[in-house]
Write a sequence for this structure.
């Protein structure tokens, strides 16, 4: 398998993001449609059902650096959330506490990250965690 | 269609007389079946293709082979029977058996050769891209309607001496090197490949969906490994045969004579698609007479099902694909890669003086019919390209011919989309059902060219309309028929009224 | 497959031995399917005197699948969007495996010489092009001066 370069990989992800994926649980897009380095992205996660996140929409900022996808993106919650892998002052998803970023693979995408975060919110221990007031931000 | 079974016998007979292990002294009996295929002017390509595939199974099953992964394998037989009934909904077990069977079917075996080439591809393109119907392709090659899969040379230098060229050809492998550890299967356990059941590799506590996904992944990873093992076994058999002959212990009629090797590779050319040096003659596009090797030809196919490109209405917001009518999904036959003529077909003119291998003389006994001085090389070259007077269009091969399941795939995709949109809104679904275009068209069953191959296969036990509609579920079909019946009776009533009014 | 297909090796060699006037394409050392490309703006077009940087990638299924091509230099053109994506039929539905890197880049160069605002990718630019061609061409010239100076 050959390695698809960063830019073409991000263009693919952009097109997939525009198409929308699966049940409308997550989405993402370029922060600045003019940025041809395609570095900054915003994402949203619809809180999983049967959890304290139900019906909440969480916004995130994703930064795909120059070595993406060889290296994982930097992911940060903008909406306040109480989750063990999220730094409670900055909103940053701490890579060493979140397996998808810790055990990053080149085949992973922003979609993988968002869907895995949503799964993390729905685990037995995390779904009952008390959550900050809806709409508050880091 | 009534005469098909008799034709089958006529064509089948000469094939069965081929005595594979022995290779008796002459190849004369093979010319009979060669003649049959060229004189056959039948316009029904589907029928021909079908006959071709049964021809190959007769032929291959008549051989005695004991290698692993051979067609005689009991699993493979099961798969073959599943293969022949595409109208039933297959279980995932059956589907997997078919995939394994296909993987076995595209192994290069040195003793299955035609005019110096093989019945399976060298491997310039990845395994998952070889989705053509192997039985059809094999029989087209045996009928000399498609060039065999030759082992390509990476480079060719016309300044090479005969000895240099022969040395290079002697060292050619049967198959290109495999990527043994593709990234795709990196962390996937494959377990014991000899045991058919691998459920023990899957976490018992996972959901049904996860189970299915993991099962499919493991199956693919295992098949990838198995295929490498199978092909390597064939490579070893080939190598041992060569060593045995070199040691002078035995004769082997399947191995090509030096003259055959030289004639093949001294008269090759570069395929304009893969840029590899391939023995001639190549296939030629019927529209613009450009050469294409068989390995590239089997890569050319219809685009995946898609919605028409020009369907954008500027006054409407752009529709998501999931909101569109699944029946609008369409595919077009492949275009010629060279001149973009629609409905690409190729024509192949086999070498007249090199009928070796299956239905020909044993490759080991081939003697060059032209003096090796090279002064009538020009003659040979001009023979490669079919003269327009020689082109018999009924022998042309299209990419649909080698993928007779293209329509079933389209219907499957339509169904998949239909199910998805059915989930979205009930209103949307009911609209589809009353859409007259979607309904079965009453008595006017039109003899279109769609799915001719499958149709002919199915005609024995079901009506042709039924098989055309095979992609749809029974409920869907029934719904449509009810709708259609209502529509027709309303129409009838209307007509009756208007005619009585006139009176 | 693990190794680079012969076709890609030969195409790369031939781009060096028989270069296309006004076009360069060189593979990256660490990824031989990934090319750094330059195209000179065609004479007589608003892109004249400009040197445009592009990137080109040959996917796994090349040549059965089209190369991926993108402008890195900003350009004002109705068929090229702000991310440098190109709307060109042979890169999408009309791709043919008989086409090559060479023919693709020549087509891109031809697209610079004759923009097609009726099949736009950048809608705002196309609108400008249809309503006020002279003005649009002037903007294209200014952008060429600003971003694509040799």
């Amino acid at each position: 398998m050959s390695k698809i370069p960063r830019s073409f990989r991000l263009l693919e992800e952009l097109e997939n993001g525009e198409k929308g994926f699966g049940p409308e649980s997550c989405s993402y897009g370029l922060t600045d449609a003019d940025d041809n380095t395609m570095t900054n992205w915003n994402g949203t996660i619809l809180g999983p059902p049967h959890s304290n996140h139900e019906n909440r929409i969480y916004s995130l900022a994703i930064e795909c650096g120059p070595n993406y996808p060889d290296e994982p993106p930097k992911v940060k919650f903008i909406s306040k959330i109480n989750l063990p892998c999220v730094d409670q002052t900055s909103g940053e998803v701490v890579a060493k506490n979140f397996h998808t970023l810790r055990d990053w693979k080149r085949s992973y995408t922003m979609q993988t990250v968002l869907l895995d975060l949503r799964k993390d919110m729905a685990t037995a221990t995390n779904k009952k965690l008390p959550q900050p007031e809806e709409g508050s931000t880091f | 269609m009534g005469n098909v079974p008799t034709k089958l016998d006529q064509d089948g007979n000469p094939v069965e007389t081929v005595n594979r292990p022995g290779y008796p002294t002459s190849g004369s009996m093979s010319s009979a079946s060669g003649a049959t295929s060229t004189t056959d002017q039948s316009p029904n390509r589907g029928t021909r293709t079908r006959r071709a595939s049964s021809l190959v199974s007769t032929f291959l099953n008549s051989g005695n082979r004991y290698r692993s992964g051979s067609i005689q394998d009991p699993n493979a037989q099961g798969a073959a029977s599943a293969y022949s009934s595409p109208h039933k909904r297959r279980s995932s077990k059956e589907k997997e058996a078919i995939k394994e069977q296909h993987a076995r079917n595209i192994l290069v075996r040195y003793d299955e050769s035609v005019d110096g080439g093989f019945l399976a591809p060298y491997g310039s393109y990845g395994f998952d891209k070889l989705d053509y119907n192997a039985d059809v392709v094999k029989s087209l090659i045996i009928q000399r309607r498609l060039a065999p899969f030759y082992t390509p040379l990476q480079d060719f230098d016309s300044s090479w001496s005969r000895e240099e060229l022969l040395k290079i050809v002697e060292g050619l492998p049967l198959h290109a090197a495999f990527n043994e550890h593709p990234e795709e299967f990196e962390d996937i356990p494959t377990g014991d490949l000899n045991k058919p059941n691998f459920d023990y590799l899957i976490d018992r506590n996972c959901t049904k969906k996860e189970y299915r996904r993991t099962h499919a992944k493991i199956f693919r990873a295992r098949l990838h490994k198995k295929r490498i093992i199978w092909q390597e076994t064939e490579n070893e058999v080939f190598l041992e045969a060569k060593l045995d002959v070199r040691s002078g212990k035995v004769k082997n009629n399947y191995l090509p004579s030096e003259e055959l090797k030289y004639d093949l590779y001294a008269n090759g050319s570069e395929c304009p698609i893969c840029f590899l040096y391939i023995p001639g003659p190549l296939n030629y596009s019927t529209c613009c007479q450009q050469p294409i090797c068989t390995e590239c030809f089997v890569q050319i196919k219809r685009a995946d099902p898609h919605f028409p490109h020009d369907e954008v209405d500027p006054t409407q917001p752009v529709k998501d694909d999931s909101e569109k009518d699944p029946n609008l999904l369409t595919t077009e036959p492949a275009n010629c890669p060279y001149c973009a003529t629609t409905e690409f077909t190729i024509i192949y003119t086999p070498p007249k003086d090199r009928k070796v291998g299956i239905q020909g003389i044993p490759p080991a006994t081939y003697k060059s019919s032209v003096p090796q001085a090279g002064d009538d090389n020009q003659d040979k070259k001009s023979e490669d390209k079919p003269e327009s007077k020689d082109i018999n269009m009924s022998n042309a091969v299209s990419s649909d011919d080698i993928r007779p399941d293209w329509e079933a795939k389209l219907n499957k995709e339509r169904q998949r989309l239909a199910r998805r949109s059915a989930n979205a809104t009930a209103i949307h679904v009911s609209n589809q059902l009353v859409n007259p275009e979607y309904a079965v068209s009453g008595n006017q069953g039109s003899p279109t060219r769609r799915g001719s191959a499958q149709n002919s296969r199915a005609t024995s036990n079901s009506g042709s309309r039924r098989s055309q509609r095979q992609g749809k579920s029974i409920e869907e079909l029934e719904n449509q028929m009810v709708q259609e019946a209502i529509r027709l009776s309303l129409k009838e009533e209307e007509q009756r009224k208007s005619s009585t009014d006139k009176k | 497959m693990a190794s680079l297909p012969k076709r890609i090796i030969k195409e790369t060699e031939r781009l060096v031995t028989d270069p296309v006037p006004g076009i360069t394409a060189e593979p990256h050392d660490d990824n031989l399917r990934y090319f750094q490309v330059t195209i000179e703006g065609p004479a007589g077009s608003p892109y004249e005197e400009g040197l445009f940087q592009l990137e080109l990638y040959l996917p796994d299924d090349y040549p059965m699948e089209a190369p991926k091509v993108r402008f890195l230099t900003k350009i004002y053109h109705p068929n090229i969007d702000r991310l440098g994506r190109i709307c060109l039929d042979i890169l999408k539905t009309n791709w043919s495996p008989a086409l090559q890197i060479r023919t693709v880049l020549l087509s891109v160069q031809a697209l610079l010489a004759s923009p097609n605002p009726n099949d736009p990718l950048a809608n705002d630019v196309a609108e400008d092009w249809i309503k006020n061609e002279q003005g649009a061409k002037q903007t294209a010239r200014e952008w060429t001066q600003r971003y694509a100076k040799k």
User: Anything to note?
Assistant: Residues 13 and 19 of chain C are 10 Å apart (CA to CA). Chain C has a mean pLDDT of 93. Chain C touches chain A at residues 31, 33-34, 55, 57-60, 68, 70, 72, 74, 82-85 (CB under 8 Å).
